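Lab channel / #folding
Pinned by the channel admin:
"Please post every new chain as: sequence first, then the structure tokens as a reply. Keep commentary short and put observations after the output so the thread stays searchable."

First post following the new format, from NK:
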Amino acid sequence: MLHRNARLVVAALGLTGATHADADAQPARGVSATPPWHLSAIQVAAQCRQRVAETKRRIDGLLARPLATQTFANTLRPVEDEFGSFANGTAALGFLQSVATDKAVRDSSTACNQAVANYTVELYADPRLYAAANRARAETLGAVDHALVGRYVESARHGGAALDSATRARTTALLQRVNDLGRAFLLALGADSSTIAVADSEIAGLPAAFVAGLAKQNGAYVVPVNESTLGVFMRNDASSATRRRFYRTYMQRGGTANLERLRSAVAMRDTLARLFGFPTWAAYQLDTKVAKTPERAMAFIRRIDDGLMPKARAELARLEPLAASDHLDHPIAIWDVAYYTEQLRRAQYTLNSEEVRQYFPVDHVISSVLDIYHELFGLDFTPAASPVVWAPGVREFSVRDAATHRALGTIYLDLFPRPDKYDHFACFALASARRSASGAPDLPVQAIVGNWPAPSGGQPSLLSHSDVETFFHEFGHAVAGITDASPYYTTGTNNLRQDFTEALSQMLENWMWQPAVMKRVSHHATTGQPLPDSLITRMIALKHFRDGTRGTTQAFYASYDLALHTSGPQVDPLALWKRMYPELTPLDDVDGTLGPASFGHLMLGYDAGYYGYLWSKVYAQDLFTRFEKSGVMDVATGRAYRREILAPAAMREPDALLQRFLGRPLSYEAFFREMGLP
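Reply from TO:
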């Protein structure tokens, strides 16, 4: 997942390529030469206040120029220069909210995010900006400059700049309040430290290394309930009752306070949409996306759900004999699916997930993934000799072009859980590629933040194949940011159309199912051997086994999100969840759970946008068809993908990017084939 900061709720978006000039030995303008990782809370606050105040003063001065004298060159281009510098200069300060080890720093970072988001909302609601962008649009400009102007017009219109002053003041206040609710929602999830107590009699089936890493209290094991423990526990714990307790606890994260935050945000979004002239928040949001309308997105999602529901039910039916032999005293429930799927793997495919994990020690996975990206896209990754990082264990890599040795940027890896750390897996842009009017570049900085199982008992961290696939996906986001060739922040990778942005990494997930690549990434923790052919064959045979269950679950999330944002201001998020879940998936929801309270995407910038994961996969699978023909490690195709898809970023629209790479318009054929749909 590409993490979308709250300040980008109304961000400008873009059209045709540009390239960086040599950036070696040039300071990164807008980004501190010394990263802010060890600033105190007071210093974070001071730097943030200074950035906001200076940017506001400078942009106000530019927009104060008489409209009749304004041009792209003397007004909108300098505004973009100031805003890009501001965005890059505050991104790392705001990132500390998700990763800092000190609560005071996290709190200060949260306040910084609020100040940045509030100023961004004010900027895009400024009628002077809207007027300047519309005036510049009448000029004869180059393609990239024209794209930049178009994104400013679009974002200012969506920010309320065309409204009367009273309505504009109201929409600005509401947008800022929604941003505040989103931050509080996500902080509550990050601060959640739920655990369950598990007796000796309930740990049967759990891997010994996992149990060894658990603390004991009052004679019971204390199991943290979070993303890093979810998969291992649900696949392996033999007690259905214990799995149910774990699942219920996991789905109660965020609590009723987050439900109330979501309910308030949905009501405010509905009011905002109507003030902006749209019937629903979904209609407002999709107006600037590829899908364009909620009806089109919903029809697409419904086709997937209807097509996959029979497959999902058949998958559950295949698990029933295993449950019966286990004397399960109730129909298979959601907390049983992962466990009996694992039993099926072992019984019918002689595939043990714990056996597979032995082939994926963390260090080898990281080094081999970097090596693949080096070969395919022509990038060199060099570990920092003296890394400057925000927490122990974080890794830092400098990135250069392999052919020219030109500096391209920096990638950080923060992959293991810590208290109060961001609790999902995502790629954060800490600085985006851009070039100031004076020619000074900002080199992109990307951070991949995750929660893999931590090493324990003297043993290395071992990953599931799914973990490896996720890392390959997120590293794709980081590389997209690093190879972004836009001269402007606003036409860069951060501002790709949201229902296309995941395509760039979803396409790369296919590599983790190619036998030669699977061998390359694997290295048995004891023997050093790669995955044997027989094991790869069994893994691939099972690749699509749970497509029905997984696909209907994704369709549910997307449908729920769209329904939530088309149902008016009085909708009850939890009641809607409880009603839709059994309609769109083959299972019932669980009593006592609070599903929407931990559905972070709804408050992370993916509101009325979750459908984009499935929508963008259409582009992903179609893009992959060229690699299928040439070979997944074909260097010429990899360089073409970097040049024609990654480098242009948001300077061109998604359909134009795809047409250029494939030489034809978008086709849905590869997507529906991958999903197993006619």
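NK: The first strand starts at residue 195 and ends at 198.
TO: also worth noting, The radius of gyration is 25 Å.
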